[in-house]
Amino acid sequence: MKESSGVQPGSKAAEIVQTPVGRLGLEICYDIRFPEQSLELRSKGADILCFPSAFTMKTGEAHWQLLGRARAVDTQCFVVMPAQSGKHDTGSGADSSQDYVERISWGHSMVIDPWGRIIAQSGCNGEELIIADLDYTVLEKVRADMPLWEQRSAAAKAADQRAK
């Protein structure tokens, strides 16, 4: 599956949403491969980044956990990764001659803390509910002990100002 053949990037990152559990920045599946948007959401005040996804078995096994942990460490945010799993039909495209194609998605929904630790994870087959406590003392400690945000380059800080 090549999403880039049918999906185009938007012109700006989503806005932060205040939720009962914190300030949420929402991205989607393929976005996790590009740290810039996650960094922009952090600069807008996100404490949680969410990436609903349907990674393939091949890319999921190789990249899913790695990318999620990287975004958590890059941004010092919680990362929530709800993921489609198991077999499903992709549906037909605009061309009605295309047949349904069966696809298997990686699954492995997970929640990662700002230090990059996986604090909850599902398996790869079928529906499963995972629950994690987002401990904001961990977020505060990570950000205080390693003040990456304040230590970034002048160019990165200027980009933050343009994003706001």
From TrEMBL:
InterPro entries (alphabetical): C-N_Hydrolase, C-N_Hydrolase_sf, UPF0012_CS
Domain CN hydrolase stretches: 1-136
Database matches in PROSITE patterns: CN_HYDROLASE, UPF0012
Highest taxon of source: Eukaryota
Classification via SUPFAM superfamilies: Carbon-nitrogen hydrolase
Coiled coil: none
Protein name: CN hydrolase domain-containing protein
Natural source organism: Torulaspora globosa
